[in-house]
């Protein structure tokens, strides 16, 4: 079963949340970030080239212009491959674990998997980020030595940064699965 | 109450304040010694300022004829005041940076709990009395806010 809704992120950009219910114990949430806008791309390219032209008029060395073109191209490729995330996915499987996938604009995907034995809870936490206070979803991991302590905090949807309404949807679905998991794990 | 009229008096005031024991900070406004303390700062800061002006403006020859020969170079009159000004400007940037550095990052455990919350004692629940003050864990707070009260946060 698939479901798509649109939300907004903390800066006001549009996000699309796709929810897939594969089974009562397996769900996937897919957040699509806004694409690289043509406006910002042209703005950055123009500033870099104008700066290079300004340097050229000072130094009279034409290598600066070709270097600027090179830098712009390499910078764009590096940005698309290492920085710009297109889609973030959270897959929860009841007895197995939680998998987070980030797909970059160049097609690269990076995946993190956390097994269910390590997961203590998924909560919505508030923290100071730059000059704002934001809500973000995070996975709390158990301490292997002492199960009641929290050893690590893993934030999810780090580059999409959705607002509270989107987070509440994801939080409720995750809590249903975690409650289901706790019920089945404590029963003999 | 002394009015901090010059940066010199501010520096002297800070140096004297910081050299006292922290336990005495609370009583400072009640001690009669406070007025003497302020007066010392006033006199020393005014004296320091007059000395600085003398050093900066009166020509070397006049000072030498008075017998005062061992002064630092006059170049330092401008240099020191300029250094002080730049330090103040950098102080603004530095304070902003220190603030940003001491804010815990999003994946830090300090946004969820701290040593006090980890070590708190669980007191027994008594029927009639008000429950003791304690830190509620993030999981419980989330359940109360987002699972129990369904329409509290879902309005757009």
Protein described:
Chain A folds into 2 domains: 1-34 and 82-184; 36-80. Chain A is elongated. Chain A has helices at 38-59, 63-83, 164-186, and strands spanning 2-8, 14-23, 26-32, 85-93, 97-104, 109-115, 119-129, 132-142, 150-155. In chain A, the strands form 2 sheets. In chain A, strands 1-2-3-4-5-6 form a 6-stranded antiparallel sheet. Helices cover 35% and strands 40% of the residues of chain A. Chain B has helices at residues 7-19, 33-57, 60-66, 75-102, 115-118, 138-148. The mean pLDDT of chain B is 81. Chain B is mostly helical and 156 residues long. Chain B starts with 6 loop residues before the first helix and ends in an 8-residue tail after the last helix. Chain A: Pfam families: PIG-H. Chain A: It comes from Macaca fascicularis. Chain A: Residues 89-158 form the Phosphatidylinositol N-acetylglucosaminyltransferase subunit H conserved domain. Chain A: InterPro entries: PIG-H (IPR044215), PIGH-H_dom (IPR019328). Chain A: Belongs to the PIGH family.
Distance between the termini of chain B: 53 Å
N- to C-terminal distance of chain A: 31 Å
Protein chains sharing the most extensive interface: A-B, 26 and 20 residues
Structural class call of chain B reads: mainly alpha
User: How large a portion of the residues of chain B is in β-strands, by DSSP E?
Assistant: under 5%
Give the overall shape of chain A, derived from the CA principal axes.
elongated
**Which structural class fits the helix and strand makeup of chain A?**
alpha+beta
Q: H/E order of the elements of chain A?
A: EEEHHEEEEEEH
Organism (chain A): Macaca fascicularis (Crab-eating macaque)
Keywords (chain A): Membrane, Transmembrane, Transmembrane helix
Pathway (chain A): Glycolipid biosynthesis; glycosylphosphatidylinositol-anchor biosynthesis
Family (chain A): Belongs to the PIGH family.
């Amino acid at each position: 079963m698939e479901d798509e809704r649109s939300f907004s992120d903390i800066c006001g950009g549009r996000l699309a949340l796709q929810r897939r219910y594969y089974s009562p114990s397996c769900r996937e949430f897919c957040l699509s970030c806004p694409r690289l806008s043509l406006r910002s791309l042209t703005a950055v390219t123009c500033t870099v080239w104008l700066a290079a032209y300004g340097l050229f008029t000072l130094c009279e060395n034409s290598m600066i212009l070709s270097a600027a073109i090179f830098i712009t191209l390499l910078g764009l490729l590096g940005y698309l491959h290492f920085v710009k995330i297109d889609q973030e996915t959270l897959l929860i499987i009841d007895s197995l674990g939680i998998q987070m996938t980030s797909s970059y604009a160049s097609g690269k995907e990076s995946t993190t998997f956390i097994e269910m034995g390590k997961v203590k809870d998924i909560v919505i936490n508030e923290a100071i980020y730059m000059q704002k206070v934001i809500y973000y979803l995070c996975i709390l991991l158990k301490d292997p030595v002492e199960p009641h302590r929290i050893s690590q905090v893993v934030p999810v949807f780090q580059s999409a940064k959705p607002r509270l309404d989107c987070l509440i949807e994801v939080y409720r679905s995750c809590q249903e699965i975690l409650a289901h998991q706790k019920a089945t794990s404590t029963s003999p | 109450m002394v009015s901090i009229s010059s940066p010199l008096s501010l520096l002297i005031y800070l140096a004297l304040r910081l050299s006292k024991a922290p336990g005495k900070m609370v009583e400072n406004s009640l001690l009669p010694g406070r007025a003497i303390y302020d007066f010392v700062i006033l006199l020393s800061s005014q004296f320091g300022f007059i000395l600085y002006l003398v050093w900066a403006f009166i020509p070397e020859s006049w000072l030498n004829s008075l017998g005062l020969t061992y002064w630092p170079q006059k170049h330092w009159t401008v240099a020191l005041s300029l250094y002080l000004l730049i330090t103040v400007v950098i102080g603004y940037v530095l304070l902003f940076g220190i603030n940003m550095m001491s804010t815990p990052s999003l994946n830090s455990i300090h946004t969820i709990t701290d040593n006090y919350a980890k070590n708190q004692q669980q007191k027994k629940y008594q029927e009639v009395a008000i429950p003791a003050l304690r830190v509620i864990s993030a999981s419980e707070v989330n359940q109360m806010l987002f699972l129990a009260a369904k329409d509290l946060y879902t309005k757009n």
